[in-house]
Amino acid sequence: MENIFLSIIYNPILLISVMASIISQFFKMILYSLKKRKLIIDVIWKGYGNKAGMPSSHTAFMSAAAATIYLIEGGPTNLFMLSVITAIVTVQTVVDLKFHFDSASNYINGMFDLVLDTKETALKKFEHLTGHTYNQVIVGAIIGIYTAINLYPLF
């Protein structure tokens, strides 16, 4: 039982993917801190708002996993293609979330304007920080692939 547990924990696919996600969250902390002009460390474990922001840690994790599988398998094998498909579905889901939450927040903000009938903001506008833009996804993918290429030789 111990060997199975240790082989899961020390699996290069998992370790490299987690490292890519941590690196992504670190960059997110730096960018968010620069935006707010103060160091905000809790972004590393809380994310930016509701796990959104630049770069996408979800994408970094999934692209690192796919890239590591490519490196382990030695090319575009069936397992690698399955990992790419899984990564695409995951990434598209977080992008779709952003679209749907944007639509909902625009509707709610429109209702505020209609009901309150004022130019001044009586209540803070409804805003959300869920999902990712394509730019955030692209940067996350770059971080994931770069991390896999540079860390895999250590295994």
Please give a structural write-up.
This protein is mainly α. The chain has one domain (2-154). 72% of the residues lie in helices and 0% in strands. The chain contains six helices and no strands. The protein has helices at residues 2-9, 12-36, 43-46, 57-73, 78-116, 134-151. Helix 4 (57-73) runs antiparallel to helix 5 (78-116). The protein is globular, with a radius of gyration of 19 Å.
Radius of gyration: 19 Å
Q: How widely separated are the two ends?
A: 23 Å
Specify the number of helices.
Answer: 6
Please tally the β strands and state the result. Answer: 0
Described by strand count, sense and barrel closure, the largest sheet is: none
Q: Overall 3D geometry?
A: globular
- Proportion of strand residues: under 5%
Overall number of structural domains? 1
Poorly predicted runs are none
- Which whole number gives the mean pLDDT? 81
Helix content: over 70%
Give short descriptive properties of this protein.
155 residues; globular; 72% helix; mainly alpha; single chain
Short description:
By secondary structure, this protein is mostly helical. It is built from six helices and no strands.
Secondary structure elements and their pairing?
Layout: H1 2-9, H2 12-36, H3 43-46, H4 57-73, H5 78-116, H6 134-151
